[in-house]
Amino acid sequence: MKEVALNNDVVYLDNAATTPMVPSVINEMLDKMQNVYGNASSTHAAGREAHMILENARQTIAKSINALPEEIVFTSGGTESDNTAIMGTAIARQHLGKHIITTAIEHKAILQPLAWLEKQGFEVTYLPVDENGVISLTDFKAALRDDTILVTIMMGNNEVGSHMPIQAIGEILKDHQAWFHTDAVQAFGLLDIDVKVANIDMLSTSAHKINGPKQLGFLYRKTGLVFPSYLKGGDQEDKRRAGTENIPAIAGFAQAVAELTATEKAKRQAKYYDFKKLVLDRLKQAGVEVAVNGSLTADGLQHVLNIWIKGVSTYVMQTNLDLAGIAISGGSACTAGSLEPSHVLTAMYGSTSPRISESIRLSFGRYTTSDDLNYFVDQVIKIVKRLHQ
Question: What are the residue boundaries of the Aminotransferase class V domain, all occurrences included (predicted)?
Fold first, then answer.
């Protein structure tokens, strides 16, 4: 099916915040909204039809990360999945210890529940990162203790695109009691993920990051992991998540996942890497003082480009680009309205670095074109020249 363009009045470069749904997903959801109205928990024909769609979607999604269908629990999104993994583990395993390991650059959906657990007597180690936004495995090994019950480390960072050494961490934890959870909200759909090879126990995703619907995601929960349901109520999701499943949205999510083959993911990564080079090369050729926050490594999340434009505040650049019809971000969309500096850039460069207040994030998606990026660069050059006159 031919894809339709986005609003021609807006150059959308904020796909790490959310992505627009694609026609194939919308059509799949519309079909189910019009024709499948049964409750998947009902035993009559309408319910059985909904249940079949639910389980087919579960199978499609499980296959994408080499999991078993019964290991996929549908949730309202990445935040619920993260919270469920963290809180569930803490409640179920506190008799084995109260130590948790994470990183200083996790999403707030990880950091805030951990901060709450600290108030309840749990101890959390926040691993530092280098200027590329990556932890040291030496630091990780040093932090690991006999009473560590959970390690939660994101697969790819949402602000700078750094890729953590997930498989190496999983290998270290193979014979340890700690459960290993990874927030893969940004990485899912771009990187090939095999939860068995990487020894991942729990993994969180969100549908709206891969051109699917909002308010939907899943938590991969390895067979054998037992903890109480985060939501109390019905017996849906094999008693692991109460609440009637949103069949149209889940069908749309499965459609989005089905389109992200290994070939398609590699194609997008390569395209986005070329986009990064286009932006950086043109800015440097124009004499704009620019530096990458993080690195341009081949294994990173290529859809995220966080750049320091020296001498121009984040707020000024973002406001001027918005007036020019360009949507970018100053950091995570979940904290974009806050006056607080990015905790990710602060962890990478220190609280006194000018990068903290002079950086912007642009993130590419399915509809991004080189014309979009050339227009973006043209506007940045104009803004910088006007401000430096």
Answer: 11-376
Q: Is residue 4 one of the residues assigned to a domain?
A: no
Q: For the domain that residue 193 is a member of, what is the CATH number?
A: 3.40.640.10
CA 209 to CA 22: how far, in whole Å? 12
Q: What's the whole-model pTM score? A: 0.94
Does 1 fall in a domain? no
Q: Is the pLDDT of residue 178 over 80?
A: yes
The 10s digit of each residue's pLDDT in 9-67 is 799 999 999 999 999 999 999 999 999 999 999 999 999 999 999 999 999 999 999 99
Where residue 8 falls among pLDDT bands split at 50, 70, 90?
Answer: low
What's the CA gap between 150 and 86, in Å, rounded?
Answer: 8
Question: What are 205's strand-pairing partners?
Answer: 218
Query: Domain span at residue 289?
Result: 11-21+262-387
Assess whether 299 and 320 both reside in one domain: yes
Give the C-alpha separation, 50 to 176, whole Å: 40
CATH number, residue 354:
3.90.1150.10
Domain termination site, one of 242, 258, 274: 258
Strands 202-206 and 217-221: antiparallel
Whether 156 sits among the annotated catalytic residues: the reply is no
Helix-strand-coil split of the chain, %, nearest 5: 40, 15, 45
Q: Which of 33, 104, 334, 336 is catalytic?
A: 334
